[in-house]
Amino acid sequence: MKKIGIWDAETGGFGWYPVFLREMLLFRRKLLKLGYLFSAMVVPIIYLIAFGFGLGKSVQIKGVGYLGFLIPGLVAMSSMNNSYTWVSSALNLNRLYFKTFQVLVQSPVTASSIMIGEVMAGMVKGLFASSLIILVGFAVSPDFTIHPLFMTALLLNCFMFASLGVITGMLTKSHEDTATYTNFFIMPMAFFSGTFFPVDKTPPVIKAIIFMMPLTHTNILIRKSLLDHQAMISLAMMAAYAALFFIYGWYLIKKYNE
Amino acid sequence: MVNDACMIELRDVTKHYGKIRAVNNLSLSIRRGEVFGLLGPNGAGKTTTIKLLTTLSRPDAGVCRIAGMDVHQNSLEIRKIIGVVPQENNLDKELTAHENLLIYGMLHHVQNRNEKISETLKMVGLWDRKNTVVSGFSGGMQRRLLIARALLPAPSVLFLDEPSIGLDPQIRRQMWDVIRKTGIDGRTVIITTHYIEEAEALCDRVCILAKGKLIALDTPEQLKRSVGDHIVEYVDTQGRLVQHICKSREEAHDIARQENSSVTIRKSNLEDVFIKLTGGRIE
């Protein structure tokens, strides 16, 4: 009987597990190297020192100290960077240079299993890096708290950008192209979507562009403690982006053809 | 209707990469249990043919079938019965030999995984290195692990794309022993190679490819017989290598007697077949 390929019935829906496990075994080896921990933390810590400690004492945003505003933004940025970059570069390298991606697509697992396994692995890497920033946040800012919407935003952000990482990893034709996507899309988004300053006072045209950026909605939701109207819009936008990226990533894996 | 004896069939298969026609209207069938060689120089279309049969590429025209199933309409079913040893070493080099096989076994739904992994590692002589990270393996050991990985789910069809490329002659012969063992239990084995001796040593039948086209297909002995059993070789007065293909040993000796210079008489090989049919060389 022909299978459509969404549900991996033979594995009871767990066809994604070996894909995920493989990434975790490789991740474990990386964790044992000191360089990984350092590289996951260095950029957000630099921002924390440069902006947080520089402006922290003199600036208040919406009645909250600047550090209390900045740290959730750094968590969002760090989870985006790690979920996205690890998935996109690993997939790109595995597909074009190491050819280990071909082992997955020549196995009797569905495209959805590969997609889920890769995205979940990206989420773990994003959550790991974020948890380091969260620990630093608790240590340096009394205003920093974690609530259910914070966790929702964080998980959805990791899912969204890991899915986007699959798309980039599948579309790029060389490893250098991955850096181009990062420089032209991910990096500007990190700076202009409310990580370091509130976006509500920006000019309307800029504001409209910023509103289209997925990370903007993570930054809105991650700082909310109540599910108000604005939080619901951001949650809906994030869910829509997450679904769109996931489906397109799945489609690219399913249509893989050398 | 599917012929029981036919395990693999390509019918009028064509595949382009841009303007290059990598496979050109290729038709052939491979019998169940056969060790079948695809022989040709680089760019002959061997690897593309393997990619088409192992669900990695889709043909622009024509049909590929394995066990009676269309490869691209039943890709999940096909992947359950094939094993692939690719030309590029695509092991996870930061994982151990055991971890590589564990992941592959899970991907292929292998039952009694640990037992099967032990058996397979023992078969290729890597049991004592099972917990060694693959990057610490020699090239020959990595090739053996690639074969072990492909054999773990006990596939009915095994594809070996240039299995001994880059290996020194001694390790290459060890590799042939491993491949011979895998063919003994009745599975269909398809080997691409540009090593003449490899095709002659391992294959029941050989298909010679050039520029994506089938040039000849038969047993190695029959192919050699078709061009002549013996070759007379000598260097002429202008330093050029001259070859005469002879139908018999007597004919070869007659030609050798007529030449004043130093003459070599040898048995023909598949390289001679290729030269005769295409005018080019394989290696």
What's the layout of helices and strands?
The complex is a heterodimer of chains A (258) and B (283).
Chain A: H1 16-31, H2 34-55, E1 60-61, E2 64-65, H3 66-96, H4 101-105, H5 111-140, H6 148-171, H7 175-192, H8 204-212, H9 214-222, H10 229-254
Chain B: E1 6-17, E2 20-31, E3 35-39, H1 46-53, E4 61-66, E5 69-70, H2 75-81, E6 82-85, H3 97-107, H4 113-123, H5 139-151, E7 157-161, H6 169-184, E8 188-193, H7 196-202, E9 205-210, E10 213-218, H8 220-227, E11 230-235, E12 241-246, H9 249-258, E13 263-267, H10 270-278
Parallel strand pairs in B: 3-8, 3-9, 6-7, 7-8
Antiparallel strand pairs in B: 1-2, 1-4, 4-5, 9-10, 11-12, 11-13
Helix pairs in contact in B: 3-4, 5-6, 8-10
Shape of chain B: globular
The strand count of chain B comes to 13
Element-by-element helix/strand order of chain A: HHEEHHHHHHHH
The CATH architecture assignment of the largest domain in chain B turns out to be: 3-Layer(aba) Sandwich
- Biggest sheet strand order of chain B reads 6-7-8-3-9-10
- What is the average of the pLDDT values of chain A? 90
By DSSP, the count of extended strands of chain A is 2
Order of helices and strands of chain B: EEEHEEHEHHHEHEHEEHEEHEH
Largest interface: A-B, 28 and 29 residues
Count of domain modules of chain A: 1
CATH topology of the largest domain in chain B: Rossmann fold
What is the makeup of the main sheet of chain B? 6 strands, mixed
Principal-axis shape of chain A equals: globular
